[in-house]
Predict the 3D structure of the following.
Amino acid sequence: MSDPGGFTREQRPLGRNRDFNVFWLGQALSVLGGSISLLALPLLVLEATGSVVQLGLITVVSGVTAIVTGLFAGYVVDRVDRRRLMIVCDLTRAVLLGAVPIVWWAGGPRIWLLYVLTALATVLKMLFDVAYVTAVPNLVRTEDLTAANGRLMGTFAIGTLLGPVAAGFITAAVGPDWALGVDGATFLVSAASLGWVRFRRPADRGADPAGPRAGVLREVFVVGFRFLWTHVLLRPLTVLLTLLTFVTMGAVDLLIFHVRSDLHRDAATVGYVIAVSGVGVVAAALGAGRLRRILGFGPCWLASVALTGVAVAGIGVSRSVPVIAVLAAVFMFGMTLGGVSSMTLRQEVTPDHLLGRVTSAFWTVHNASGPVGAAVLTVLAARHGVAVAGLAGGVFCLLIVGVGLLTPLRAARGGAAGTGGAVPRATRKPNVRCDPEGRLGS
């Protein structure tokens, strides 16, 4: 089918791609709602219990559930209709969040409900997020992947900035329980928008070569990790990003501690710094496509790590709030540019029937180091000061760049190793073979 401009669905440029633009706008509102919950849920816990311990336990439930769900989310996403899965996740979350203000109104606070809500919502979010990543290549042309991911990342940044503000107004007006209800309504809009979107069925989307004989545990835990390890670009990228996450997950904690405790500024100042950092996210999201076309994937990703390292070191040693705000924007620019680039690479090189499992494996591996790194970085700051911790983090990032220059990443131009560019998904042959049992190998 072609549009009035003579383009088929598969050929439409991003600006005229109705399916992607409906998807994008629907998710924009959903992201805003999710950002409301980020503030509303902790406020509701504190309002109901007055206990920081309960707040911490809610966070623990969310974190543990996310890790466990991440192990099997990719398997589920690769085995079912992804659009229907996303719609079911949205509708279920709408019901769960919409029930909170009703229960609060009818019977008063129920802290057990928040634990159940947190666990179920985290499972649904992980399933949705993995499907979300796999959906983008089924909506846009390969050459538009970076720009599409940039738009989605930019929308996420804006929603993250506006969501807490909206949550504050809603909470002040009608309470945090109704703020969660508003978030539930945004999931209804997201589900409706997905109902209007058609996902293209790529050439490599068919029966899973693993077949029904493959054990479920093997499929859940092995296939995605194996693909990462045997791909010439994804292997070094996964290792280096795991090291980078070790440093960067605690960087925001360092920034907040530095501004509040070392510089003795109030919470409003911290909010101003965080708001300015969002400019870096938007700038990277808008410029990621052009930068990747000019520099190629490898130089673009390594440059993003270098920028991140310089920003971490600068934030640690600076005593000026405006300078710290600018460096925070540089930090977020580097993190966003690297995130868009790595997401696009996975989408380009991974066969569609494996993309869910590879995404889950990728997230599980590189996120596992984050909590440990955050603990190490904050302990280092407590014992030796933020300046020492910041400099150590910055040097560590630059060492990652140095190691990256010794890997195939240094010359990688696009998604297909050795070709100098990305290969269109419709014609690309997966770089895999089937072993005698029908399971995937490299």
DSSP finds 15 helices and two strands in the chain.
